[in-house]
Amino acid sequence: MVDERKNQDETAGVQESRQDKHQDDVARQRQDQRDQEVHDAHTRKPPRKDGSGEPA
Q: Where is this region: Disordered (predicted)?
């Protein structure tokens, strides 16, 4: 029972992640709309461990 529920949760998580990615991709394709692009540039990369702001 527990394993079945865990598998359902994982499947739902994967589907939700795919849906979020699809929505992000659609938002990037809209002309003259850059909010998602700007948001991604500032929030979707891991912080540098050496403390510098330079890209890897």
A: 1-56
